[in-house]
Amino acid sequence: MEVKVFKDYDELSQQAADEVINLVKQKNDAVICFASGNTPLGTCQWIVKKAMTEKIDFSKCSFIGLDEWVGISPDNSGSCRFFFYENLFKPLQMADAQIFLFDALATDLNNECRKMDNVVAEKRGIDLMIVGIGINGHIGFNEPGVDPNLLSYAIDLHESTKAVGQKYFTGATELAQGITLGLDHLMNSKKVILMANGKSKSEVIKKAIKESVTEEMPASIMQKHKNGFVFIDEEAASLL
Ligand code: F6R
């Protein structure tokens, strides 16, 4: 694992966007997995800007959504699906056939998980995963204490995830479960970039990358990834 510290959020976002753009230049059918949330928003915006100015063709790429809030409708602006369509898929004019997202309204969540695992297998793995980190150390919805050997699964969310998650929604929203790619997918991805910005992430970043690898701090598994990178701004790096 390598840690890269950038001046501020904009520089961090540009660098992460460059990783995606350079990958697609080298491999036009790249398989890319993204988290949603506040952290990757700037990255998505830079990808779109750079794709337009550099005329990058995304039409052969595949995009996999890292996770979703179970039971939240796709037209809810707080859903991960909504985030991806607004910030990435529509601006890049991506076709539905390139997009692989969990169906949060599926009655059989286990089947949703197996479908996603099959997508990853059929595509021969994920080339690049860009993930965030929760203040409780989660990646995707891999909450503290979770088995790191899992593929995709549904999970009861931790209280802090339900509380912090309210920031994505316009009104108070009941959040109970999440559906997510497990950490086994992360460890098998050819490259992973964990991003974090701001003072509020400095404590968890210190725990995740400076302390021991433990299931109680899911993001600490990044330390074991052979091609894992932690991209942070100076504020998130302030306790290192
Ligand atoms: C969202 C996701 C979450 C977030 C994390 C940080 O798809 O996977 O694990 O990455 O909660 O969220 P932000 O970026 O909003 O601070």
Name the quaternary structure: single chain
The name CATH uses for the topology is Rossmann fold
Helix percentage range: 25-40%
Which ligands does the model contain, each kind named once? fructose -6-phosphate
- The averaged pLDDT comes out at 98
Query: Which structural class should the secondary elements be placed in?
Result: alpha/beta
Compute the number of structural domains. 1
Largest sheet: 7 strands, parallel
| Record field, number of beta strands | 10
* Largest beta sheet: strand ordering: 1-10-9-6-2-3-5
Number of helices: 7
Low-pLDDT runs: none
Mind telling me which CATH architecture this is? 3-Layer(aba) Sandwich
Order of helices and strands: EHEHEEHEHEEHEHEHE
N- to C-terminal distance: 15 Å
Describe the global form.
globular
According to CATH, what is the class?
Alpha Beta
Percent of sequence in beta strands: 15-25%
- Estimated radius of gyration: 16 Å
